Amino acid sequence: MSIPRFHLAFPVKELEKTLAFYRDILGCKTGRSSDKWIDFDFWGHQVVAHVSPEDAGKSASNEVDGHKVPAKHFGVILEWDEFFELAERLEEHDLDFIIEPYIRFKGKPGEQATMFFLDPSGNALEFKAFRDESQIFAK
After folding, report:
1. Residue 10 near residue 49 (C-beta atoms within 8 A)
2. Of 8, 26, 122, 125, which is most buried, counting CB atoms within 10 Å of its CB?
3. Do the Cβ atoms of 89 and 99 come closer than 8 Å?
4. Three-state secondary structure along 49-62?
5. What is the mean pLDDT of the chain?
6. Domain 7-135: CATH superfamily, name plus number
7. Domain-by-domain residue ranges, the chain?
8. What is the Cα–Cα distance from 101 to 86, expressed in whole angstroms?
9. pTM for this predicted structure
């Protein structure tokens, strides 16, 4: 059985910087596009950036583990090594993190690496990895 893929549409301020960020920095392949939107292959999932400057980057935050976590965010769960490779690539591009890469629940059920950052439109992304993927929903 194949794993279902999700589709997510999100607002951006403009496409040129969005394309450069998702394609050139995150490494996402592109799909169909127009002058108002562009499809990205987001680790096997379809995410679509739609030009809507008035809606882009707006989010409240919640306190989690002493960090202000954007209430509205998206991302993927990567393999452990892939997470750190991406973190290194983002650092090489001098990306400003909302929450720098760190390990949550170290030595406990659900141990995970996580990081938060913004795309050029101010949309928050979270990437994470679990040391043991069977612990994704651990309590």
Report:
1. yes
2. 125
3. no
4. EEECCCCCCCCCEE
5. 94
6. 2,3-Dihydroxybiphenyl 1,2-Dioxygenase, domain 1 (3.10.180.10)
7. 7-135
8. 10
9. 0.91
pLDDT of residue 65: 84
Question: SS3 breakdown of the chain: % helix, strand, coil, rounded to 5?
Answer: 20, 40, 40
Structure tokens, 114: 């996580």
pLDDT per residue over 48-106, tens digit each?
999 999 998 888 899 888 889 989 999 999 999 999 999 999 999 999 999 999 999 99
> Amino acid letter at 92?
E
The token pair that represents 59 in the structure block: 């989010």
137: left (phi over 0), alpha (psi -120 to 50) or beta: alpha
User: What gap in Å lies between CA 123 and CA 52, rounded to an integer?
Assistant: 12
Q: Tokens 């306190």 map to which residue? A: 63
The Cα-based distances of 109 to 34, 66, 69, 73, 84 in angstroms read: 45, 19, 21, 24, 20
Residue that the structure tokens 């209430």 belong to: 71
For position 87, what pLDDT does the model report?
97
